[in-house]
Design goal:
The protein has about 140 residues and is α+β, with helices and mostly antiparallel strands. It is built from two helices and six strands. The protein has a six-stranded mixed β-sheet with strand order 2-1-6-5-4-3, with helices on one face. A hairpin with a 2-residue loop joins strand 5 and strand 6. The longest helix is centred in the N-terminal third of the chain and has 19 residues.
Length: about 140
């Protein structure tokens, strides 16, 4: 399925908005990013998945000063599905207050709602090893 350029740009801006809202502490606006029943999968970090915008908001508040001071999203790849859903894969960089940095991959399912495009599922995977842990064969 093809995705209109206008929709593709809206989806990319949606994914980009995450860092601005979180870094600004505008957690009351997370419903601009996520569906009400979003699944936010943090299992790669040894945590359970969060269900719903309120749970995502509360988890961010609970993390408090341990939150990154800056979230940067790059390398956004948008793939439209035949079912109307859009798969988005992007890279995230988080900068902590002490200057340390971490990298993640976001795998998002994005759906069109009455309020516009929203993320219905986000899986966050930590990037811990170069080349995805692969080594040269032979």
């Amino acid at each position: 399925m093809s995705l209109a350029l206008e929709d593709r740009l809206s989806v990319i801006e949606l994914v980009s908005l995450h860092g601005h809202l979180v870094d600004d502490g505008s957690l009351d606006r997370l419903d601009e990013l996520f569906t009400a029943d979003v699944v936010y999968d943090l299992t790669d970090f040894g945590q359970e998945s969060l269900s719903g915008v309120a749970a995502v908001r509360e988890a961010a508040w609970a993390l408090g000063a341990a939150n990154p001071v800056a979230h940067h999203v790059t390398n956004v790849v948008v793939t439209a599905g035949a079912d109307g859903r859009v798969q988005v894969r992007s890279k995230g960089l988080g900068i902590k207050a002490d200057g340390s940095c971490g990298s993640v991959t976001y795998d998002d399912t994005v759906v069109r709602t009455a309020d516009g495009w929203r993320i219905s599922c986000r899986r966050v995977s930590a990037r811990r090893t170069p080349l995805g842990g692969m080594t040269k064969p032979g």
